[in-house]
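Worked example 2:
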Amino acid sequence: MRDAYHEELDSIGDGLVEMARLVGSAIGRATTAILDSDLKLAEAVIEADQKVDDLQHELEARAITLLARQQPVATDLRIVVTSLRMSADLERSGDLAQHVAKLARLRYPERAVPHDLHATILEMGQLAQRLMAKAAEVIITKDVDLALQLEQDDDAMDLLHRALFQHLMDDRWKHGIETAVDVTLLGRYYERYADHAVAVAKRVVYLVTGEHPDDLQSDIQPATQVEGA
């Protein structure tokens, strides 16, 4: 009975990894769709988001069944509750990738992103995909150090987001209000996507240690300062 119970716990983790891989692929393909004005690809990304939603619903059902039948305590309870929260982060990440694809579809056959911002949006899309790939690795390995690195990696997305706004606020902006709105939305989608990847990693830290990452880092810093004194 307990073997079946732990197999069910493992299957929840497997479902989270699958969700992370799907939403990682989605943001990469959505980025290509928005930059290339690829309607077929945009439609494929939009349609594929249903699989992410289905996986989340299946994972929630499994978790609720475990809570009801097994009444897990301590670490096992933390795994179930944290997994539910991670699934919500991943589902929202899929929605954000879908938003990018929907914008590509809305503007087709025109391009939503002006040529002078292609490189920035491409970099944001690639970074978002890398962050989610690392989040998936964290779910698999339960590597706390790797999880904590994600927040530092996310700083690069914040810098790209700021650079995007600086471009929009430049007096030389010549692409009109509609494009400015589109680019603003895109920047927000990528920034929030990255935030969700970081949130997933932080939840793994809590799952493994029982401590919130901010508390863990504050405990580490004084020790580091003493060593360097």
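The domain at 2-227 is CATH 1.20.58.220 (Methane Monooxygenase Hydroxylase; Chain G, domain 1). The mean pLDDT is 91.
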